[in-house]
Design brief:
Layout (H helix, E strand, L loop, with lengths): L11 H8 L5 H14 L24 E4 L5 E4 L5 H18 L16
Length: 114
């Protein structure tokens, strides 16, 4: 099930407006039905929707990069932070502590774009 609810939030006022509402009821209804369908016997007393925002970047990949001799960045965004945060953190910590890239994936893919 691919549902998208990505309002363009380009400034602080738009973010405030988005957080002040209860989200997209159509998305809430579809995901709720989906969960109830795949979890037979689940007793549902209440369904509540909440809003969130995420950031994106041109590469659609996390940034894991040493940007100076003493600063390493690890920024996931793109709606995948919770999924891969442990590995991103591990790679960033290793890079920060040793200066060496510790992944089979090419470092070039994760360079920060400014």
């Amino acid at each position: 099930m691919a549902l998208q609810n990505n309002p363009d939030v380009n400034c602080l006022e738009e973010a405030r407006e988005w957080y002040a509402n209860n989200g997209d009821q159509e998305v809430i209804d579809k995901y709720s039905r989906f969960l109830i369908d795949i979890l037979p016997g689940l007793k549902v007393d209440e369904i509540k929707g909440m809003t969130c925002v995420t950031c994106g970047n041109p590469s659609d990949l996390p940034y894991i990069d040493g940007v100076s001799a003493t600063v390493t960045v690890a920024v996931v965004g793109n709606g995948r932070g919770a999924t891969i945060c442990d590995e991103v953190g591990r790679i960033a910590a290793q890079l920060s502590l040793t200066g060496h890239w510790d992944s089979e994936l090419p470092k070039k893919l994760f360079e920060a774009i400014f």
